[in-house]
Amino acid sequence: MNLKNLNKIMDLPDSGKMPVLFLGHGSPMNAIEENEFVNGFRRVSREISMPRAILCISAHWETKGTFVTAMENPRTIHDFGGFPQELFDVQYPAPGSPELAKQTKDIVTKTDIGLDEKWGLDHGAWSVIKHMYPSANIPIIQLSLDYSKPARDHYDLAKQLSPLRQKGVLIVGSGNMVHNLRLVAWDKLAGKPYAYDWATEANEKMKSKILSGNFEKLIDYKNQGKAFDLAIPTPEHYLPLLYTLALKDKNDETTLFNDLPVGGSLSMTSVKFE
Predict the structure, then answer these.
(1) 11: burial class by Cβ within 10 Å (0-12, 13-18, 19+)?
(2) Where are the domains of the chain?
(3) CA distance 123 to 61
(4) What is the CA radius of gyration of the chain?
(5) Contacts of 267 (CB under 8 A, 6+ apart)
(6) DSSP secondary structure letter of residue 73
(7) Does the structural domain 3-273 have CATH classification 3.30.930.10?
(8) What is the pTM of this model?
(9) pLDDT band at 187 (very low <50, low <70, confident <90, very high)
């Protein structure tokens, strides 16, 4: 893709509203394995229009303040340990877009966004997007998660990104709705899907609220009971879902996919608004 096409993306004619995705990314090994989750990522990319660019909000870039990657060639970050060398050898050389980063900064007026030249693409971004767009020819920028801000602030920030949908930008939140690594049943990671009762309860309640459009309780996730407390012991994997919810248009249809538990305390449930 010619990066010059993105120099004035907000001045381009509307390309038709792009979907918004929340992708349950799970283990980094999904980057190199063949499984039903990978097939789900590929399938959803075939169901939607080819984006002009991608903006990804990943669980794996937490910062004090909010930043957007603004380099022309983001590096592939291997932000994990204890995995086979094959995974560390993966490169996803998608271009960045300094111009889209600047325009993202400009349209967000309630929060100051810094332009970052150091981060790149972490595995929350590249491990899923590589299956959707293996040619690595679509410009990608990442937006960080300000760990000092409450959930409501993240939701309100995300709403300001809405104009990008009309300009051909695919906005992707990458995390996991249920994500408690401390309680993973490591002996049940392979084989049939497996979930603890509390993980099933939390995931089902989340899905019900997503499908009904009742997002207020999802924003107020800290006051939804024990199952939610166990499902969201720390917020970073959950917050990308709130960015996706904030961008849902009233006319969007909701589709759930990859809706399976892993290892007792993780859910791969993914969402498409289109």
Answers:
(1) exposed
(2) 3-273
(3) 10
(4) 17
(5) 24, 176, 177, 178, 179, 195, 199, 203, 231, 259, 260, 261
(6) S
(7) no
(8) 0.94
(9) confident
